[in-house]
Design goal:
By secondary structure, the protein is α/β, with parallel strands linked by helices. It has helices spanning 21-30, 48-61, 80-100, 116-137, 159-168, 178-184, 191-202, 236-243, 259-271; strands at residues 3-8, 35-39, 64-68, 104-107, 144-148, 172-177, 207-211, 213-217, 220-226, 248-253. 42% of the residues lie in helices and 19% in strands. Helix 1 packs parallel to helix 2 and helix 2 packs across helix 3. The protein is globular.
């Protein structure tokens, strides 16, 4: 049976008056959830002391934290200053994650651009390799860079790329965004095969994932998230697969309904005998 950590991407909407991440973490605990992703998607605007306070609250309440790095990252840009700025944003995300005890920093690593898939892979590998070397030099050995599986075919982040990179770089792991994978596959998904690939590649290591339904318009993926009830992809088959496997996994709900849908996911998991840790 899977061991599951489940929570929202950002401060729960339940905590309408939450002033900061600490209050968001408390709200996650009050809802009966046990994970939260701290969203730096518009920029790393959290100071060092605030990150440390968030970490204290998460440890006290037993909430597992992760971080999402800014969207404005492209390690395959043909403009050197954009690559440099991307690395700075990612480094700042790693620093705050380390200070708050968040175990993984999720990143949309690159667009293929003029490099194309193969050269982009090499560039991402080189730049993340340099970054992870710096992490270890600075004593940051408790944070992974999570390369997210992306939805669009012009983005770096196929299953092969994310898993392949993680096999080559020590502090890198793939982050499976189930909705993105569903879109990248043209509206199909095989949960069991991906869970088995993780087990084959990384053994008993903790797996970090995102879940939301995604939107199609005129048969094409639109970069919009939908409530879980849209069933694109359906969540219940994933719950069924998790009930059959001994895997440690985080499920971060990225639905626009956020904590409401996280609680729905919890209900579906419990229906299949899977309870939160």
């Amino acid at each position: 049976m899977a061991r599951v950590w489940l929570g929202p991407a950002g401060i729960p909407k339940y905590a309408k008056r939450a002033k900061d991440t600490v209050e968001g973490i408390r709200a996650v605990k009050e809802l009966g959830l046990n994970a939260m992703e701290v969203e730096f998607v518009q920029g790393v605007r959290m100071g060092v002391e605030a990150a440390e306070r968030a970490g204290e609250a998460a440890r006290e309440l037993g909430v597992k934290l992760s971080v999402h790095a800014p969207y404005f990252i492209n390690l395959c840009s043909d403009e050197a200053e954009k690559v440099e700025a991307s690395i700075k944003r990612l480094w700042d995300s790693v620093d705050r994650a380390h200070r708050m005890g968040a175990w993984i920093v999720v990143v949309h690593a690159a667009y293929y651009g003029k490099l194309g898939p193969d050269k982009c892979y090499d560039a991402v590998k080189e730049r993340l390799g340099e970054l992870t070397d710096k992490m270890l030099d600075e004593g940051i050995d408790d944070v992974f860079i999570g390369v997210e599986i992306t939805a669009r075919n012009n983005q770096f982040g196929s299953v092969e790329e994310a898993f392949g990179l993680a096999k080559e770089l020590k502090r890198v792991r793939p982050v499976v965004d189930w909705g993105h994978l569903y879109a990248r596959n043209g509206g199909t998904i095989d949960y069991g095969s991906v869970l088995d690939l993780w087990r084959t590649t990384f053994g008993d290591e903790h797996m970090h994932t995102h879940f939301t339904s995604v939107k199609y318009r005129n048969g094409r993926y639109v970069d919009e998230h939908e409530p879980i009830s849209a069933n694109m992809p359906p969540f219940e088959p994933l719950a069924e697969e998790l009930s059959k496997r001994d895997v440690a996994i985080t499920l971060i709900c990225e639905s626009p309904l956020l904590d409401q849908d996280a609680l729905l996911m919890k209900e579906i998991l419990e229906k299949h005998g899977v309870r939160l840790v």
